[in-house]
Amino acid sequence: MVKKKRLFSKIFITLLCIFLIFTLFGFFIAPPILKSLLIKNISKTLQRDVSIAKIDINPLNLTIKLSGINIKEKGKTDTMFSMEELFVNAELSSIFRRALILKEIAIKKPYLNIIRNKDGTYNFSDLLEMADKGKETELKKTEEKKKKPFHFSLNNVSIIEGSIDFYDSPFDARHTIRELNIKIPFISNFAHHIDIFVQPYFSAKINDDVYEIKGNAKPFAESHESYIDINIQDLDLPKYLSYSPMKMNFKLISGSLDIAGKVSFIEYKDKGSSVVVCGNVIIRQLTDEDPQKNFFLVSPI
């Protein structure tokens, strides 16, 4: 009896020590190590200076938070991408189910600076080339080894208060996106999730014009069934018509566009795809360079 008590005591003390080591490592040791590795590897991969202000890990709640992420332009000190905070909360069942299951992914105040050069390339064109090479390598590996699909379930995905600056050098024009918010309840390729509708949400101010899109979609179902609500208010028509590649025989001085519509898409096995568009399009205060040609238009789709 005494031997059994001693054995249980040893097991308890051993488990307690493992728990304490795991907790201390997660809270205090892992964050600086992970921070150093991430900065080194991401900087090398992107060929840009990368900094991370702080990493917090809670091994008990399985959460990780990266604060103050900043990626510079290649060979410059200007910011190309930054993020106030990236928060990820993992699910313990990921280990037992051999899948990536996340309770929450929250990206707070991301910022992206896009520059279109005069030759038509972008300040991230080199990254796209690297991504294409990586895809080719991955496709070769996939062909060599036929693997079972990797299962994942990403829940409560959100982008909060995002911003984008876009400088179009050929046109010497600047465009902005502010108050960018994206919410996706879940994205999953588990069999029991395939026929459940995902309800994404998007809203933003693009050049001070308000955009809002809501939808229902089955991204991993064979039908790819999707329904999208589109709501655009006060779109500045002259600003966007200036990007038309075709020459127009008129010059638009003013005009705004409102769209309130629905788009549905279903891909059938035995016949072609079906796309249905319905709603209203309203064009207001439309004026060209001739002041006598002012007119209004209301057009249902």
Structural overview:
The chain is an alpha+beta fold and 301 residues long. It has 2 domains: 26-193, no CATH class; 223-301, no CATH class. Helices cover 25% and strands 48% of the residues. Strands 1-2-3-4-5-6-7-8-9-10-11-12 form a 12-stranded mixed beta sheet. A hairpin with an 8-residue loop joins β8 (209-217) and β9 (226-236). The chain is globular, with a radius of gyration of 26 Å.
The major β-sheet equals: 12 strands, mixed
**What integer value in Å does the Rg equal?**
26 Å
Per DSSP, the total helix count is: 4
Order of helices and strands: HEEEHEHEEEEEHEEE
The portion of residues assigned to helices is 10-25%
Overall mean pLDDT: 82
Widest beta sheet: strand line-up: 1-2-3-4-5-6-7-8-9-10-11-12
Contiguous uncertain segments of 5+ residues: 294-301
Tell me the number of structural domains.
2
**Multimeric organization:** single chain
Distance between the termini: 84 Å
Helix/strand structural class: alpha+beta
Shape designation = globular
Strand content: over 45%
Number of strands: 12
